[in-house]
Amino acid sequence: MTGVLVALGGNALARAGGTGSWEEARAQVRATVPVLAEIAAGGHELILTHGNGPQVGALLRQNELGESEIPALPMDVLGAETQGQIGYLIQAELTPALRRVGVDRSVLTVISRTEVAADDPAFQDPTKPVGRFYNDEEAARLRTKLGWILAFDEARNGWRRLVPSPHPVRWLEGRAVRQLLAAGLGMNWIPIVSGGGGIPVVPRTGGGYEGVDAVIDKDLSAALVARELGLDTLAIVTDVPGAAVHFGTPRQRWLGKVTRDELRVLLDRGEFGAGSMGPKVEAGLEFLDAGGRRFIITDIPSLPLAMRNEVGTRVERD
After folding, report:
1. Is 257 a catalytic site residue?
2. What are the DSSP calls for 273-289, one per residue?
3. Secondary structure of residue 203 in the 3-state scheme
4. pTM for this structure?
5. Which residue of the set 9, 10, 131, 196 is catalytic?
6. Bridge-partner residues for 114, per DSSP?
7. In the annotation, is 145 catalytic?
8. pLDDT (tens digit, 9 = 90+) per residue, 98-122?
């Protein structure tokens, strides 16, 4: 038996170009969970994380539309909302999928906080776009009223809010989950943790933690979770069958089994997009450098075969 963390990307939760309706999300997750059930049926201790970009974007828009009647909520609270929302959906669909393959495990959502450093340079240089696009008049109003930092996107001819993306330091619920797994409960339940990278918090003067308006990269957070739980495998699920060099060009080549050093050279060479595949590769290398055994990048349909080292981009610790 091996422990595997599967980090679900947006494609597992929302269809590209879709309406964003609950029915659509349920259908997407329903198509995803048979693969997760197959992994569990293979005798693996399974832990799940997930993205939340579209869902947080929808809640931000709801904030805007309702601000005349209902006070807007800060981003850390919206992150907590999406963890509950998405966790509930995965629980509802994965539980019967497990039963269909003869696996008797409970699926539980753990609302998770991720500590970041208050002096992280990211707070001085927000780079992560969130929410919808705004016209010039809206952008000027939001800068004045709320102090937002916005950047202009020429392709969309609009402005978009930028928030910090600090590096994850510690998963605050990690100790509790680790103790449960160490007690032999890993084959009795499947935890869903650190959704959307976790709720970003910083230490509060006098004790405790305080939420901040930021977005933590979900893949870097997944690597942190996998390291803290001492898992064997980190599998990052995306919408392509693996990582590629010269992506989107006639020279494109999918990567299969590669070494850690080869992958690092390709990352340093700029082969992987900073806003797409780059953070996934960086997360995988962090996991391997900290003692993880195997890192996988693939899509949902290919995941069982990738777990058997047949497809996908696969890196094993030397």
Report:
1. no
2. -TTTHHHHHHHHHHHHH
3. strand
4. 0.94
5. 10
6. 171, 200
7. no
8. 999 999 999 999 999 999 999 999 9
